[in-house]
Amino acid sequence: MLGLDFSFISLDVLQKFVWGGLVFSVQLTIVATLGGIFFGTLLALMRLSGKPVLMGPASFYVNGMRSIPLVMVILWFYLLMPFVIGRPIGAELSAIITFVAFEAAYFSEIMRAGIQSIPRGQVFAGQALGMTYAQNMRLVVLPQAFRNMLPVLLTQTIILFQDTSLVYAIGAYDLLKGFTNAGKIYGRTEEAYLLAAVVYFVICFALSWGVKRLQAKISIVR
User: Fold this and answer.
1) 18 and 182 in contact (C-beta within 8 Å)?
2) Rg (alpha carbons) of the chain, rounded to whole number
3) Residue 152 needs a FRET pair 20 to 30 A away by CA distance; which of 2, 37, 93, 217 works?
């Protein structure tokens, strides 16, 4: 097959080089998703608050982050932060902080759309019952918004998992880095990159299929 040789791949090679990178990629995806949703929800509430003192900074942050390539944010934070705090923070920690900060901007837009999708009548009903703005959001609006946006949130998480390969730029040991190291050591770089692409495809395709099934179930419930 075009001179390719995959005989170097074995369970031992996968455990030694690839498994650790896969674990970090998954951990980074989970932490960035949870952190991104948390801070993204706060940003969305700030933008919908109607108060300029909150709307201005939130809009500036979201629009600014969404206008910069993720790989540039990763590199800037990794290279400039040591000058700010006086010491390096490491590639892995830098990747986690960067992804949470970056994904918060994208999850913010998803949550803002979800909140705005809730009929105003339900908000007015909560107000009629004497609920405060915070209680209305926590008990009435946000639970429905999360359910409505769940397929989109999961789709963004899949994209996030794909983007974890960008931490390769700062030397973090992710899934792509694991395949790269194996390929270099065994002199099979092309095969290693091809296998990495296949693994990314299989994982993301399976997750996308699951999201479609979930979306279909949510549509039936509605």
Assistant:
1) yes
2) 21
3) 93
Global pTM value: 0.87
For residue 84, name the pLDDT band (cuts at 50, 70, 90): confident
Cα 208 to the chain's mean position, in Å? 15
The tokens for 207 are 């997750």
Encoding tokens for residue 122? 């339900």
145: containing domain: 19-176
Closest CA to 99 of 42, 162, 175: 162
18 in Cβ contact with 180 (< 8 Å)? no
**Digit-coded pLDDT (tens) for 168-220:** 889 899 999 999 999 888 888 888 999 999 999 999 999 999 988 888 877 65
What burial class does residue 60 get, using C-beta atoms within 10 Å of its C-beta: 0-12 exposed, 13-18 middle, 19+ buried?
exposed
Contact 111, 44 (CB under 8 A): yes
Distance CA 165, CA 160 (A): 9
Specify the CATH number for the domain of residue 39: 1.10.3720.10
User: What DSSP string runs through 117-146?
Assistant: TS-HHHHHHHHHTT--HHHHIIIIIHHHHH
Report DSSP letters for 64-84, one per residue. HHTTS-HHHHHHHHHHHHHHH
